[in-house]
Every structure is written in structure tokens, then in C-alpha cells.
Amino acid sequence: MKNSNYIINGILIVAVIVLFILQFTGGKAGTKHSETTDGVADSSGFHLPIAYIRTDSLLSNYNFYKDLSDEMMKKFEDKSLSVKQREDRLKKEITEYYQKLQNNVFYSQERQMQEQNRLTGLQTELEKYTASVDQEIKFEQAKMSQQLQDTIVSAVKDFNTPKKYEIILSNAGTDNIIYADDSYDITAEITEFLNARYVPQKK
Question: What is the distance of C-alpha 51 from the center of its chain?
């Protein structure tokens, strides 16, 4: 009898534990399922406070960038022409030197060496001038890039006042964003905003 009572009591205890577990886990599972379902339903209209700008498209349509690029190109062409003219003059003088040397025009070895040293000095000057032009062009390019960046950043801050977005990303090709929904693309809005506030300088 005692053994049978132990068995019955054990079964009852197990049954109570099982019912207890089912009661609480079942309720939570049902709630979790309901929350998940509701979450999915609600997320269909959810929009993150994030946007991105396609930089390549922005720059190709930004009037300030076009004007800066034209100005930079003119400076580069002017400097390149100046270097080319100096190179041509030096080449001409070197050619004349070898013609004189071939025709024994120089009166003495000393006079020949003087002319050769003069041409070597001109070559050194040309190399220095070319290097300085290269540095000047790089400096102008960096200055232009910084000016452009400052202008765009300042404009985007104004565009985002009052705050509409928590984050505005910059993207060129797929450098930073591999995929994003088109609804997050504000390139056209930013371009329009930038061009509206840009006033070209009178020349």
C-alpha cells in the first residue's frame, strides 16, 4: 500500500509541475507570438530618421562645383602652358648648343663649358618651377575640395533644421551603402537646396 501511495503521489506531483509549466510558458509564448505579429504589422509603415546622398550625382548637378571645376581647369591649363613654353625654350637652346658644338662655333673650351653650365642651370630652374607648379595645383585642388566640403556640410545642416534626420550619409557608387531603399535618398532635395542658395560671383 505504501509503495502504491508513493507512486500515486509522485504522479500527482509530476502532473502539477507539468500543468504549472504549461500554464506559464504557454501564456508567455502566446504573448510573444502576439507581440511579434503586431510588430511585423506595425513595421510596414515605419521609417528610420536616416537619409543618404549620392555624391557623384550631387556634384554633377551642383552649380558651385561646376564653377569651381571650370576655375580649377583654367588654372591648370594656364600653368601647364607656362611649363610647356619654358620647356620649349630650353629645348631650342639645347638644340642650338649642339649645333654650335658640331660646327665648332665656340672659340674655346672654356666658352663651351660656360654655355653648357648655363643650360644645366636652366634645366635645374625648369625642374624647380615644374615642381612648384605641381605643388601649387595640388594646394588649389585641396583648397577647392575643402571649400566644397564646408559648403555642402553647412548647407546640409541648414537643410536639416529643424531636425528631420538623425544621420545623413554620403555615398559614391557602393562605397558606403550597398543597398538602401530609394525613399531614403535625398540627393535631389539637397541638390535643389544647394543650387537655390548659390549665387555665382560676378567676373
Answer: 16
CA distances from 98 to 93, 112, 201, 203 (A): 9, 10, 51, 48
199-to-24, 62, 63, 190, 202 alpha-carbon distances in Å: 69, 12, 9, 16, 9
3-state secondary structure of 52: strand
The enclosing H or E element of 53 equals strand 50-54
Return the SS3 of 174: coil
Within 10 angstroms of residue 133's Cβ, the number of other Cβ atoms is 17
User: Is residue 171's pLDDT more than 90?
Assistant: no
* Lowest mean pLDDT segment, chosen from 32-46, 62-76, 112-126, 148-162: 32-46
Handedness of CA 164, 167, 170, 171 (dihedral sign): negative
